[in-house]
């Protein structure tokens, strides 16, 4: 009997799988890209830095539940098939994203707002936990032997392109409706738009057929009756699950989220670079680096997956601190001299009441333009007491909304490009690597769990953990980098000792 679907050629498979997965990543990452604004909507106006940390914690919650999604939907995928399982995950993701765009603010419903968003974020995490394993398995089981790294690398582009798409939609929306309206209600638009993308992707995926290898297993009656038990109770398979996690996936995860999400968070929240500029830098860096997913994926078909992935991790360990120190140095405007200043705007002072007795905050903003084309906002916040006998309290001067000179802007793009290049090294080959570790009948379950623990938990926690570490007393802005550096270094050592560089194993079992 011929089990190869007649209309399922490899390019249609890649197109349908990649589009759906790209949209799921878009949905998942809008939240992280808008963390600062969402924090101001979900928490009290006087929450300060804790609003950002709490919002990043909600963002991280979506990553923590991804392994549970991998277990639930991985089991379904090994029992009923790849196609319908990742159709279900797509609908769950799209519905949750759309509903986040409708949640009222803290001012309207109080702490019910962050609680509802947390629930929807958890559903997003569960859905993504089932999506990736299905898409990667589906493509790998259609790909010809010897080209699985190349063909699965197209799926690998979707995570970064989903981030690229989310950033592009955010910047475009903000520029169309204006910064003030975007901060008020316009941030909801990227969430609401996802429903259109989901409907298009569901329509395309409905026309696809089941994986030929799974169809063959099903017709022969060899489908696993208990994928969870077979994946984790058999010593030999469980050993592969642990090796996939500690020798590859967790290092890949921290490199991915440091090079893209933490880079964005650091540039915006620590370096205080202008909102649009920080997004444009990331967009350019991603655009230049994305083709390397396919390049490294194809190269791994020739030389093996192991050393490409481990080299990316090692370069991250060695280069992260110098890169982020360069970010700090090029955005330090505290020592600007009068000879460097081109123009200083007239100061604008806004008063905000902070107490019923008439005490208020006076926020004075001055825009400073420099001769090299850069500019920044100098902000002084003073406490003005109604009782004139009390002294005026001065807060430290803040420098924010920094626009960089052209030269510095492109240096930032280059440094982001290099970090995303490391992402392509660790991420481009990993789908083929994971698929080839496990037999067909338990592949969806077995590969999904280590991937989503490594990528979702170890990697997804990078922005939250690194930001939290940097907020501790006695820490420096670079202290948070020790988390991804430590995880990547540990993974490099384990992978070097225990990983095999073989390829094309177990794919047709």
UniProtKB/TrEMBL annotation:
Highest taxon of the lineage: Bacteria
CDD domains, per the entry? MFS_ShiA_like
Q: Does the keyword Membrane apply?
A: yes
The protein's predominant localisation is membrane
Q: What does UniProt give as GO cellular component? A: plasma membrane
Q: Which of UniProt's keywords are assigned here?
A: Cell membrane, Membrane, Transmembrane, Transmembrane helix, Transport
* Membrane-crossing residue ranges in chain numbering: 21-43, 49-72, 84-103, 109-129, 150-173, 185-204, 240-259, 279-300, 307-324, 409-437, 449-469, 481-499
Q: Which Gene3D superfamilies match?
A: MFS general substrate transporter like domains
Topology with regard to the membrane? Multi-pass membrane protein
Report the residue ranges that make up the Major facilitator superfamily (MFS) profile domain in this protein. Answer: 13-503
- Write out the GO MF terms: transmembrane transporter activity
Q: Where does it reside?
A: Cell membrane
PANTHER family on file: MAJOR FACILITATOR SUPERFAMILY TRANSPORTER, SHIKIMATE TRANSPORTER
Tell me what this protein is called.
MFS transporter
